[in-house]
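Escalation from tier 1.

The customer reports that the assembly of two entities below gives different structure tokens on two consecutive runs. Tier 1 could not reproduce it. I'm attaching the input and our single run for tier 2 to review.
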Amino acid sequence: MVTAMRTLDRKLWRDLWKLRGQSIAITAVMASGVTCFLMFMSTMDSLLLSRDLYYTEYRFADIFVPIKRAPEAVARRLAAIDGVDKIDTRVVAPLTIDIEGFHEPIIGTITSIPDNGEPLLNRLYLRAGRLIEAGRNDEIIISESFARAHKLKPGDTLHVIIKGKREQLRIVGIGGSPEYVHQVRPGGVFPDYERYGIMWMGRTPLSRAYDMDGAFNHIVLTLTRDANEQDVVDQIDEILKRYGGIGAIARKD
Amino acid sequence: MASTETTIPDPTKSQSAVVFHIGNITKIYQMGEVQVQALRGIDLELYEGEFVVLLGPSGSGKSTLLNIMGGLDVPTSGTVRYGDKDISTFNESVLTNYRREHVGFVFQFYNLIPSLTARENVVLVTEISRDPLAPEETLKLVNLGDRMDHFPAQLSGGEQQRVAIARAIAKRPRVLLCDEPTGALDIKTGIIVLEALAKVNRELGTTTVVITHNVAIAEMADRVIRLSDGKISSVEVNTDKKSPAELVW
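Tier 1 run:
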């Protein structure tokens, strides 16, 4: 043998050297591709992990049930369904928001939270301010994106129209919830933080304003580990049919 | 050329061993719905150490016959005995070994690897052969002793063809099959290449089969086999062989 290196290896190296420009370019493109792929995979993993952590820590519900109106006692029947872990009743309502200096119509969704403390499910993540104090009927917490769009901060006031009645409310906190990560107005496709706002208010004043004393119009619940989601949804729908239930919605839907 | 038309081998070779015994082979190619019959019943024997020229017009079946002898193709029917074995029954793996160990090929276009020198092109074969000649010795045999470290692009057409011959014979094949080895060369260069083939045949005793259109080349052969329309039209034994240097075309 002429040399220790096999002739085909020698040919390979010579050909590569002759095509070094293209070889380097191809290697660089492949390396960039692999790097980007790994980066995207890593980012995707991190995002999914963050999302799952956020959902877990803030007790994001598994099932959402909008209805017309049901007495609070119904919640006990729902809680007794096999597979239901935790259940929380709420009042969720549309409203119109009036912000001084902004001349376009703003609509919003206001969700009740307990008068004193955190909700059991879909807990709030406070970015500024505080939770609502018991007995204060005019306090609200608004979503961070809405606050940023209108430069609102704790201590500011705004006017809303609830069931045709104009009310002045005071912002005490700015925050978010896993329920409203993607804030799109009903019928919309893209988020519009200037014209659609999310708010939270104490259960008592909101129930009073919407004529929901001793009742609720929205339920959120979590499932036990071995629950059959479809079975639970079917049983909830059956119980709430007479209360204007329009169908339970699972988180993935 | 002094010759006699016969199907009987040259008496001077009659004591030589038979390398190939080809018995009534046919080859039919299916081209879509059309069948093309390239060989129509060829019977032939080739002997140890003889130099055979296959003559014939395009489409007469010369290359098909050569490819079948070289294990590059298989006949549709008939037998091709190499020594005591019928290569028409070999599978791909056995055919590959047969080509590797027993047959050297030289084609019209040299098929050298451009990024390897003349020596390395030969080494490529000797690395995978059982009992090869030394690459340097092989290149000297074809008078390229002083051009071993040149790349194909630095060699003339004739020199490249001689490297191809050196590469083909370096593994000491029993048979050297050449398909138009001078087809791309001028007369002067062609004669140098033919001299190399004659030297290999003479000094190594390699049975050599050369396909050509060039009638003049027949004058250096031991036998001239003419093909026409897939059949052997004549076999002539050349009793007055000329050296390549004496050829004119």
